[in-house]
Write a structure and sequence with these properties.
By secondary structure, the chain is mainly α. Helices cover about 50% and strands about 5% of the residues.
Length: about 180
């Protein structure tokens, strides 16, 4: 019996040392030796007022970040209230701000927003860019991605693709002598 206790104690001590100290130090040092690639601009939050905005990031202007704030945390609701005030500046009175514009993404990398999130931003973009709202509505409609396999999830919009199309549309409008006299592609 005494021999079994000694073997168990040694095994526990060696496992703790190996898995709790040596292995993490080894993985960390290998990670420090490998050069990290530059993160693409896709992961950066969009700051321009004349573009569609994605979900907020907890890390501000950094690359990514999630919030560990629970729904019962008053700090979370203070942040949501501030985002709601910002988002409602250009929206009609009594319009509710879609929740994906108020709550952060789990990873901070998600380029998708809901259709309602994109439509909610049209008044701001129309005012800042001096563009027709109906034209922007059609542009948003063209970027709706259906539910996965037709029934999983919800319709969504990739704002990176939408913003690129918005820039191309504005370039066409500037080049066109009569605004709005062409089809949106």
């Amino acid at each position: 019996m005494n021999k079994q206790i000694k073997i168990s104690f040694r095994f526990t001590a060696l496992s703790t040392l190996g898995l709790g100290v040596i292995f993490p130090l080894l993985v960390t040092s290998v990670g420090l030796l490998i050069p990290s690639p530059r993160l693409s601009p896709i992961t950066k939050p969009i700051q321009e007022e004349d573009l569609f905005q994605g979900r907020p990031s907890m890390s501000g202007n950094s690359y990514s970040g999630a919030s560990n704030l629970s729904l019962t945390n008053p700090e979370l609701w203070k942040q949501v209230e501030e985002r709601s005030k910002q988002a409602s500046k250009f929206s009609p009175k009594g319009t509710l701000t879609p929740r994906d514009l108020l709550f952060t993404s789990a990873s901070g990398y998600d380029p998708h927003i809901s259709v309602q999130g994109a439509l909610h931003q049209i008044p701001r973009i129309a005012q800042v860019r001096h563009m027709d709202r109906e034209m922007l509505n059609r542009l948003v409609d063209q970027h709706i991605q259906p539910k996965r396999w037709g029934f999983i999830g919800s319709e969504k919009i990739n704002i990176l693709e939408l913003n690129e199309s918005l820039k191309r549309l504005e370039a066409k409008l500037k080049a066109s002598p009569e605004r709005g006299m062409f089809q949106i592609e």
